[in-house]
Automatic annotation (TrEMBL):
Keywords: FAD, Flavoprotein, Metal-binding, Oxidoreductase, Zinc. It comes from Atopomonas hussainii. Pfam families: FAD-oxidase_C (PF02913), FAD_binding_4 (PF01565). The lineage of its organism: Bacteria, Pseudomonadati, Pseudomonadota, Gammaproteobacteria, Pseudomonadales. PROSITE patterns: FAD_PCMH. Gene3D superfamilies: 3.30.465.10, 3.30.70.2190, 3.30.70.2740, Uridine Diphospho-n-acetylenolpyruvylglucosamine Reductase, domain 2, Vanillyl-alcohol Oxidase, Chain A, domain 4. It comes from the Bacteria. Its EC number is 1.1.99.39. This is D-2-hydroxyglutarate dehydrogenase. Its cofactor is FAD.
Length: 465
């Protein structure tokens, strides 16, 4: 069957104007934030209902056409990249909040609901959706579920999977499943919902999700603290966690801060130059809590763990302190960074970071390395910036050599090669550093059950067999 006939058949399954084949659309919808793979999709399908998604999947099975899900396209692992003639299924028009239950504190969302849209809706109800990150203004709930997105509040609230009460999914055969029925307690065998969370669309597509909400935090207050070295950050974390219930504990290096300050959007937190900075956040629900935070700060200074610090005194200052951390990814994107999103248990972070720093410094002394991340949950973002004199392909090839050593170190510390960005195509060849051969074989078997014809986002998580 000719490509033109295939496209005409697919077009008939959708509303008018909801199948795109123009060059601009193929380029836009065929990629995410990674720059490793050139997009080359066959077409872009924009369904408006569950029934249309099912029809697309059945058509794809009949004609053995691969499908790639597309949300806000903010991913950093190429899980939503269509590089091999796939049809992209984009959920931009399935973007409604369908219902709200005030007693259960749940919201039923279509997969195209923007993260910030859900956050704002929760706030209007006097509640809180805590999964938060820099791309909240464009990422979609379906994509968040597909990658089990984390972000800046994991130390208190956990990952996306902690907030999914239930979901409807269309499997790789076109079957519609309703998983968990939004129950808090459900002891009836395997929880299939959890397979789809973090599954990157390889088992099927999330077409509806019931998300839990929480009590809104009160008087969030942030502190930025300067540390003399990475070893000092861990006792600072321990000191504050022993006294306060932290909602965040982030870190960034002096090089990361320098990039932010060079933008001119936000002032330096204080005059003292420090090699590392920690940003912590808590609910200052009373003057006693605020005083406890200041006393803990003073204790950390006395111990030599902190050189300087500042505590927010207003909502505007709170936002400015957070910008020091949240603007890093966008700011360094100018340098085409090679990103690694890795994690170890919290106690191992300083030794692990020192080992990785030594690897990069020894082998590529001319590469500028930017460290930041969610140190309160052991998640580090290693960003190697591309020198101007190297082409993108040359740079990525050199970084691939570094990768092996980085991931061998991850394995040495029993860590993960991907803490929150997923595996996609950028990490699939390194999966064995985090998963045993037996685990990978079981994962392949699970995929075969839900997607027997291998049409659902093939080549992601692990290479095609």
């Amino acid at each position: 069957m000719s490509q033109a006939v295939l496209i005409d058949q697919l077009r008939s399954l959708l509303d008018d104007g909801k199948l795109l084949t123009d060059a601009d659309s193929l380029q836009t919808y065929g990629k995410d934030w990674t720059k490793h793979f050139a997009p080359a999709p066959l077409a872009i399908a924009l369904p408006k209902s569950i029934e249309q998604v099912q029809a697309i999947v059945r058509w794809a099975n009949e004609h053995k056409v691969a499908l790639v899900p597309s949300g806000g396209r903010t991913g950093l692992s190429a899980a939503a990249v269509a590089a091999n003639g796939e049809v992209v299924v984009a959920f931009d028009y399935m973007n409604q909040i369908l219902s709200f239950n005030e007693y259960d504190r749940t919201v039923v969302c279509q997969p195209g609901v923007i993260t910030e849209q859900l956050q704002n809706f929760a706030e209007e109800q006097g509640l809180y959706y805590p999964v938060d990150f820099a791309s909240a203004g464009s990422s979609q709930i379906g994509g968040n579920i597909g990658t089990n997105a984390g972000g800046i509040k994991v130390i208190r609230y956990g990952m996306t999977r902690n907030w999914v009460a239930g979901m409807k999914v269309v499997t790789g055969t076109g079957e519609l499943l309703e998983l968990n029925r939004d129950l808090i307690k459900n002891a009836t065998g395997y929880d299939l919902r959890q397979l789809f969370i973090g599954g990157e669309g390889t088992l099927g597509f999330v077409v509806e999700a019931t998300m839990r909400l929480d009590r809104a935090p009160k008087n969030l207050t942030a502190m930025v603290l300067g540390a003399p070295d990475m070893d000092a950050v861990m006792p600072v974390l321990h000191a504050f966690q022993s006294k306060l219930d932290l909602t965040a504990f982030e870190f960034f290096s002096d090089k990361a801060l320098a990039k932010i300050l060079a933008r001119g959007d936000v002032p330096a937190p204080f005059e003292t130059d420090c090699p590392f900075y920690a940003l912590l956040e808590f609910e200052a629900t009373s003057e006693e809590v605020a005083n406890q935070a200041l006393e803990t700060f003073e204790y950390c200074v006395e111990q030599g763990w902190v050189l300087d610090g500042v505590m927010s005194q207003s909502e505007q200052q709170l936002q400015n302190l957070w910008k020091l951390r949240e603007y890093i990814s966008e700011t360094i994107s100018h340098w085409t960074p090679y990103k690694n999103d890795i994690s170890v248990t919290v106690s191992k972070v300083p030794a692990f970071l020192a080992d990785i720093d030594q690897i990069v410094a020894s082998n590529y002394p001319d590469f500028e390395v930017i460290w930041f991340g969610h140190i309160g949950d052991g998640n580090l973002h290693l960003n190697i910036l591309k020198p101007e004199n190297l082409s993108k392909d040359e740079f990525f090839a050199k970084c691939a050599t570094v990768n092996q050593w980085v991931f061998e170190t991850v394995d040495k510390y029993n860590g993960s090669i991907s803490a929150e960005h997923g595996v996609g195509m950028t990490k699939r060849d390194y999966l064995h550093y985090s998963r045993s051969a037996a685990e990978i074989a079981i994962m392949r078997s699970i995929k075969a059950v839900f997607d027997p014809n291998g049409i659902m986002n093939p080549g992601k998580i692990f290479p095609q067999a």
